[in-house]
Amino acid sequence: MRYLIRIADDALESLALAAIEAYCLGDGQGSAFEQVETLGYLWGHRKFDPDLTTIFIVKASVSISAHRGDSYVIPHPQALLLKDNFVARWSPHLAFLGEFHSHPFDDVASVRQARGFEFSEQDVDSFVGDGPLWARSDNNPLMLAVTVCRLSHVRASWCSQPRANVFSFSVGEFRFWLNARVGFADKNGDRYYTEERRSAVILDLNSRYFNLKKDRIHEFSG
Predict the structure, then answer these.
(1) Contact (CB, 8 A) for 207 and 12
(2) Mean pLDDT across the chain, nearest whole number?
(3) Do the Cβ atoms of 68 and 36 come closer than 8 Å?
(4) What SS3 state is found at 26?
(5) Cα dist from 165 to 5, 28, 33, 209, whole Å
(6) Which has more pLDDT, 79 or 206?
(7) pLDDT digits (tens, 9 = 90+) for 55-77
(8) Domain extents for the chain?
(9) pLDDT over 90 percentage in the chain
(10) How far is CA 128 from CA 36, 125, 149, 182, in A?
């Protein structure tokens, strides 16, 4: 099965806002802010065809109850149920799709060295073992990683797509990468997920944001 993932501009903006706040302000406690990961949930629509599933992401909500650190984020065990039950009443036309989490890095060099826009083994283990996530998504959950770092020089740039399932863009002095994986189960209930390199996932973003040269988000500049 192949997957085409489309993300509404409002949902993409929410993903970037969640990642940049956790990156710049940490958990908001105390005056010494440290970069932390963050996590949230996704809703939208699925369209099934014989060999292609199209996933439309229209809503993203950050989970403020998640326990955050610089290299981990742990969801509150009741957050998914609480939020999905709310969305089922407020927006009953939307289906639960999956989750997103962020990867903070100091700069582009550290992202490249660590392949920081890829999913870690811990990411995958947590994804496969998250029973409520799979149950709420009808055994077809989506996992997004939003990697963020600070740019030393802000150059004029368009969005780019390093790989079919990876999308990159810059806003001010911050660079973002979006990576997508989709989980699926066989008839025995065994869980699998799409690969990274030869992925069955294609990201198709509507956004064509252009980042201006030397345009910095002054309030958050170091």
Answers:
(1) yes
(2) 92
(3) yes
(4) coil
(5) 9, 32, 32, 18
(6) 79
(7) 999 999 999 999 999 999 999 99
(8) 2-220
(9) 80
(10) 23, 5, 27, 11
Q: Taking a C-beta distance cutoff of 8 angstroms, is the pair 134, 125 a contact?
A: no
The C-alpha atoms of residue 3 and residue 68 are separated, in whole angstroms, by 30
**Quick one: CA torsion of 184, 190, 193, 197, rounded to 10 degrees?**
-140
Nearest to 98 by CA among 67, 121, 70, 119: 119
| Residue pair 170/215 in contact by the 8 Å Cβ criterion | no
- The single-letter DSSP state of residue 156 is -
Is residue 222 pLDDT above 60, yes or no?
Answer: no
Question: pLDDT for 109-161, tens place per residue?
Answer: 999 999 999 999 999 999 999 999 999 999 999 999 999 999 988 888 888 99
- What is the residue type of 88? A
Tokens linked to 120: 């870690």
pLDDT band at 207 (very low <50, low <70, confident <90, very high): low
Structure tokens at 155: 């150059």
CATH architecture assigned to 2-220: 3-Layer(aba) Sandwich (3.40)
Residue with tokens 């998640």: 66
| Cα dist from 107 to 13, 116, 167, whole Å | 21, 10, 17
